[in-house]
């Protein structure tokens, strides 16, 4: 008896959290869940388990008990029901690109929508129906066939769902708003396993909360987006200057952003010059300030000229290109499995102190792959009232984002500390506040920072639609409890 107990305990020590949680589940419900499931159920013993539990950020190393690769809405409903009935932690995966790695969880069930990535364009009504597991590349691929696009992010491998539900900034935002502002409706599975359609005139409160609340209210199985005429060719602006010219370049950038047309958007960032043939070899590894943007429509000849002539560039890689190519241009800079820590804060203004932070932190970055990004927002994003959706920080014209990108596990602490300290220092400034749900660090900050004055309404909705906080892995907001 005693020996058997010791052997049992030893065996438990050898197991990872996914194996332990699965061993603790009653076998009959697991079997019947597998049998009724239309897609693939991946368990720790399966050969594809290691591949399927990996997400984009190589720092994340979580071991789920079950990965449910859904084929359709019925699978999503049965996965939600199973997790709720078995009291399992639950995580939801679309593109797996959340920086904090919230698409996986230890010892729980991952509802993986990535097999559901269909996109259907209605070219007459300029809308697209996008399945809940699609990537930005899936959408651009189909919509560009008709010379159409919706406002999404700037890297094609990112998931539509995570990006859109937390806002979604990209090249088209100043003209067409956040990704979520382009939503006409969503189909969503809530914690009770019910399927709803939410839109401006159906389940309006759910629609309000899904736009900006992240994945906290349910699992979206389909999005209906508005489309706009974009491309297929656009003017891309991509220019690099030496960091010695930072003061002049940033002064020009800020003057330009003051009255930039909505058809043009530019992001400024500090970095180190990559050792690529597009750059002069003598500049490789040098600190730099760069700008990336695009212009569309009938703008004056070269809307970027004032920026281009702000100093002598190291490299000017601008030119006309296919919109879809612009959208995937940065993909290879962010490979799966590298280590990442990205954290943001919004700015009402870019003061000398902000520029000084960008400059100093670029010099002290532990990794030459890291960047400090300054997003120019405003335009159509700021047209929508702050309380019209759960997304609060529309009124801020800029966002500062520390992107720590590095290779070795041994450098984790140094890089996370770099990004965290940079944002903490910025947070001391009177112009800085809030945080963006899509660049959340490791979700260490309180949800109130994200949701501002919308927090209470979102907490009420959370309590109505997900009273047990089944959708809690994204760290955004918890249902109210009796003690609240
Ligand atoms: C390389 C890269 C580039 C980026 N560029 C931009 C950019 O240009 N603009 C910008 O705004 N952001 C950008 N981001 C941030 C990006 O928006 C977030 O990382 C986002 O969370 C990624 O979405 P995902 O679907 O891949 O997330 P996943 O990791 O798959 O999921 C993250 C969370 O989203 C929720 N979720 C996922 N799918 C669903 C669903 N179907 N229904 C309900 N909830 C769901 C869940 O809460 C889940 O925990 C970028 C990120 C990366 C890695």
From TrEMBL:
Protein keywords: FAD, Flavoprotein, Oxidoreductase
Superkingdom: Archaea
Domain FAD-binding PCMH-type span(s) in chain numbering: 59-230
Gene3D superfamilies: 3.30.465.10, 3.40.462.20, Uridine Diphospho-n-acetylenolpyruvylglucosamine Reductase, domain 2
GO molecular function: FAD binding; oxidoreductase activity
Name of one Pfam family that matches: FAD_binding_4
Keyword presence, DNA repair: no
InterPro entries noted in UniProt: BBE (IPR012951), FAD-bd_PCMH (IPR016166), FAD-bd_PCMH-like_sf (IPR036318), FAD-bd_PCMH_sub1 (IPR016167), FAD-bd_PCMH_sub2 (IPR016169), FAD-linked_Oxidoreductase (IPR050416), Oxid_FAD_bind_N (IPR006094)
PROSITE patterns registered for this protein in UniProt: FAD_PCMH
Cofactor list: FAD
The keyword Phosphoprotein is assigned to this record: no
Protein family per UniProt: Belongs to the oxygen-dependent FAD-linked oxidoreductase family.
Name the record gives this protein: FAD/FMN-containing dehydrogenase
